[in-house]
């Protein structure tokens, strides 16, 4: 059985990329193109896609008997679940903000 060091797991976290894009968005507050928000949303979507792909590969490997460490599959499954929940909450917040803007009386 192979044990993955914690430093490599922490370094691959998708949360770090989101916080970096938030920092870059805050640093460039005069930019009116909105690319910081677009990049953040795109990174969340890419994170969901990659974690779901890893979960599918792990499930396939488990089904054919190529996986010795089922804990890795459970960890990847939990990561995919958290990434999907994050994307759904981001979508909900964007839709709420859009509806509030549309309901604003001028």
Question: What would you note in describing this structure?
Answer:
- Helix content is 78%, strand content 0%.
- It is mainly α.
- The protein has a domain at 37-106.
Radius of gyration, whole Å? 18 Å
The tally of helices reads 4
Structural class: mainly alpha
Number of strand elements = 0
Mean pLDDT: 77
What characteristic shape results from the CA principal axes? Answer: elongated
Helix content: over 70%
Report the sheet-strand fraction: under 5%
Largest sheet: none
Written as H for each helix and E for each strand, in order along the chain, the element string is HHHH
- Cα end-to-end separation: 64 Å
Q: Please mark out the parts with pLDDT under 50 across 5 or more consecutive residues, or reply none.
A: 4-19
List the helices and strands and how they pair.
Layout: H1 6-11, H2 14-27, H3 35-64, H4 70-102
Which short descriptors sum up this protein?
single chain, 78% helix, mainly alpha, 106 residues
Brief synopsis:
By secondary structure, the protein is mainly alpha-helical.
